[in-house]
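Lab notebook page, bench 4
Experiment: in silico fold of construct C2
Operator: M.H.
Input chain length: 278 residues
Purpose: comparison with the prior construct
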Amino acid sequence: MGYTVGQVAAFAGVTVRTLHHYDRTGLLSPGDRSRAGYRRYDDADLARLQQILFYRELGFALDEIAEILADPQANALEHLKARQRRLAEEIARLQRLAEVAERAVEVQRTGVSLTPEERFEVFGEIVFDLSYATEAHLKWQDSEGHRQATARAAAHTKEDWRRLMGEAAAWRAELLAAFDDGEPADGERAMDVAEAHRLHVTRWFAPCPPDMHRRIAADFATDPRAFALVVPPSQQRPGLAAYLHEAVHANASRRGGVQPSPARPSARTQRITREEDR
């Protein structure tokens, strides 16, 4: 009995035109015809079509598929290995294109219009995580402060970024020194470090009142990607993000009359407090 061209097209998810083309080129000619001259496909034809579609999915050209199927003794494995190599090369090429696109999107999200070489020279270990930059953009896109910060970042020259990062490195050294010296997060020294960061944000990006600074610090405490923008992983210490978060809250209370964070003090701060009470 066999199957009509329409039935086969439905089975295989191809068009009738495609099956007609395969017939004209000799790639897949049905084994029978009806009395009216219509194509009739048998099980062997369907098996051959399955092979054709398999090779086509792997990207083989139709003439290559015809060559493979023409000789039952042909080493299909060698053809597949060659195709695998070409696919690997194509994947590598597409990956490079994806990286270029990612850098382009990153520039749009962060406003840092430097070449990759310049970015490494200026930023060193500080890396702008694209996923975090995108999420931050979506989170703050309706904020006037975010729009102003993005615009100012985009306007910074390479020399601006070099000065900015030099200032950030000096601030980071003060933060690490205060933490390593065991200064309490709500003490004068730690709060002065927090205030220096707030003024740094204001100077280079957008006005950062104490309450805004508290919201920024919340990301430092909960999102490693955000904290890595101010302290690279190689310089981080356990509890440092929570320490900075607490210092920012204490400074916000001191500077703007904002209530201290209800968050539980860090284990480090509690230990220091216990030692001071002895």
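Observations: Confidence is low (pLDDT under 50) at residues 257-278. The first strand starts at residue 32 and ends at 33.
Next step: discuss at group meeting.
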